Amino acid sequence: MGSAPPAATCNIVAALGPTNTGKTYRAIERMLEHESGMMGLPLRLLAREVYDRVTARIGEERVALVTGEEKRIPRRPDYWIATVEAMPMDVAVDFLAVDEIQLSAHRERGHVFTDRLLHARGRRETWFLGSDTARTLVETLVPDAWHQRYRRLSRLRHAGSRSLRSLPPRSALVAFSVAQVYEIAERVRRLRGGVAVVLGALSPRTRNAQVAMYQAGEVQYLVATDAIGMGLNLDVDHIAFAALRKFDGREHRGLGVAELAQIAGRAGRHLNDGTFGTVRPIEELDSEVAYAVESHRFRPLDKLVWRNSDLHFSTVDALLESLVQPPGHPALRRVEQAEDHDALKALNEMPEIRARANDPRAVALLWDVCQIPDFRKLLLLRHVGLLREIFLQLREGEGHLDETWLAGRVKRVDDLRGGIDELTARLAQVRTWTYVAHRGAWLADPEHWRERTRAIEDALGDALHERLVERFVERSGRGHARPGRSRHGARPPPDPHGPFAALRGLADALSGEAEVESEEMWVSRVTDAPHEDFDVHRNGRVVFEGEAVGRLSRGPDLLSASIALVDADGWSAGARRRIERRLVAFARDLASEAAGGFRGAPGASPDASADARGLAYRLSRGLGAVPNGEAHAQWRALSEETRERFADAGVREGARYLYVRDAFTPRALERRAVLVSLSDGPAPAGVPAEPAVDARLFRDADHARLYAYELLGGTALRIDLVERLLAVLGRDAGGGDGPEVLESLALAPDRRKRLLSALGFREGESGVVRLRRRRRRRRRRKQAG
């Protein structure tokens, strides 16, 4: 096990080793120590899993998710979670990581991983994670990388070949085709009563629902493709191979030892040992192969796949020529086959395409069109036919796709009828249109089409999950629906005695709107909902679409409220896990809102000074306000550059407080009151709506400061108004706009006088003036006792 890299001499880390070494966990932790970061993952499903883990830590308002077909980008993300192909390389971040870097040797996708290895860098730190098989080539191509060796946290043992009946609970069976997965899942269901299914073709919602069932123990068995080998974190004790050959897009071939190990290594989690083997009638693994997997000893990669990224767009022929440039390094070999390259060659043979791809912008557009993945896995010519139609439309008219044509294509997949195969096929089709919708320049109204295709994909995913559960899980003991909720969402219940009640009931019956929404559909809507779709009451109740789904309660500190589900017994265990994760992320966002959006960034960098870290900590814990007496020394010790970074984060230096500008908006103050009330009881009357309240409502100055007030001569004045008042009063001898601010507080004359005196001012004939220093010292001595 290694230690942290010497930061002064190296900022590129190669974190390589077997599975279950904690590499991804460490990378996430390291990323969150920086002000900003980005992680590139090999699978859409894994990107979503990491996104869920990070947002449960820091909330969704700070984290963006970007894949080819899904983009969840808040207003000001600090961290980006993406598939490797979709990493937004024009976004500069302090920390950058690429996972499963050994995929640089993959025949089709490898050139993207290699390009990231050679060119993707964080401003302060870069990590490449993956198998030890890539170590030699990483050392050759990135000679300044600091190599970190990791050992597996648990043992991995070969368990031979077993029958389906003798497989232990918490087993995952691995096959390499959809047909095989479903056939094996059906056999396990007959023997064991239930099984979850994980395929790369599933939507994230379907996959999350299936995994949640397994993780929660609703089913004890999982059947999956080799997608689970790419870092998906599951509580698996035993991996059973139901096949040892796969079709890799070109040929059927046997799995290599390193590929077997990547999948088998999913057995055992953290410190729990795992086992692997085969399922009869598959023969037992060869002893040498089994030993290599157990001991993690594999032949190192000899070359990485490369493709030129310095492309020429003067003509299509020039682009094709630049794509086949040789690598010029013995550790690299040019990519043999790539879907986008093949599509470009086929399109270039069409006269109408060559006629319209007649300038650099058009050639660049054609190449962008070729990037549309073949989610449907059709023959090349059928996929190229679709690309041809898209390109020709984009080159005609105003450069947008014809909305009538697109609407017809999308409508074909908006159909929830049919079985598993039909729904899976429609999911693959809608992923194409979701990808297109995220190319905003191609559509006149991209937001509409993003919402439309996302809604269809979600509905298809929910329907597919229901079909999978119906087919592969015994329903006994498992809730199927939330009674009383329409499939169209939470509408206020109509008056059952109203004059149109009978007609409404008949219309609902005819339209199907009275159909109850399934648990899976409701849970998916909750877990995918943005922050603004939730509300929280002063008593901690978290509400979604008018229905209480959870309750916040006192946590270990002010920023970490605990979450409890409302009516938890009405949910399946898997549903509870998913809703809890979403509500935890909501609670983290709530704390960030209460602090005015301050995220501690200037103190988050690993090389931040102790003063910067301490100040960021104080501002976070103070929900955006710290008395100058506590913060002055740290603030003055900061460099000018660091103070500017705090200022960019919204921090202002006031007369009495170091504070976050946006921590005193009505919404932020209301969020503060909710969080404080969880540990302190109901907020005093008028808090935080009133700018000034009676000081006797608070126990002492610290209690008042919790709610963003300062005690001043019998009045509790909100901190933002304290700073505003001091700013205008101190602007000139007459106090400037001070009297107007005082009038807005509507204080009785005596309270107004005492408030001004506590601030060091008095009202004279010419307006508000400063108290003399002697008088102020005498007053302070008197107050001191």
SSE topology:
Elements (H helix, E strand, L loop, with lengths): L11 E5 L6 H10 L4 E5 L2 H15 L4 E4 L4 E2 L6 E5 L11 E4 L11 H10 L5 E6 L4 H7 L4 E4 L6 E7 L8 E4 L3 H15 L3 E3 L5 H12 L5 E4 L13 E4 L3 E3 L4 E3 L2 H8 L9 E6 L7 H9 L8 E3 L9 H8 L8 E3 L4 H10 L2 H6 L3 H11 L9 H16 L7 H11 L6 H18 L8 H27 L8 E6 L14 H11 L4 E3 H10 L5 E3 L4 E4 L2 E7 L8 E4 L7 H22 L15 H12 L3 E3 H10 L2 H9 L2 E3 L3 E4 L5 H15 L11 E3 L6 H6 L2 E4 L2 E4 H11 L8 H8 L3 H11 L1 E4 L2 E4 L2 H12 L1
Structural summary, described in words:
The chain is of the alpha/beta class and 785 residues long. Among the domains are: 12-149, 3-Layer(aba) Sandwich (Rossmann fold); 156-295, Rossmann fold, CATH 3.40.50.300; 304-472, no CATH class; 709-785, no CATH class. It is 42% helix and 17% strand. It contains 28 helices and 32 strands. It has an 8-stranded mixed sheet, with helices on both faces. The chain has a 6-stranded parallel sheet with strand order 9-16-13-10-12-11. Helix 9 links the parallel strand 17 and strand 18 (332-334). Helix 25 (719-729) runs antiparallel to helix 26. The model is unreliable at 1-10 and 477-515 (pLDDT under 50).
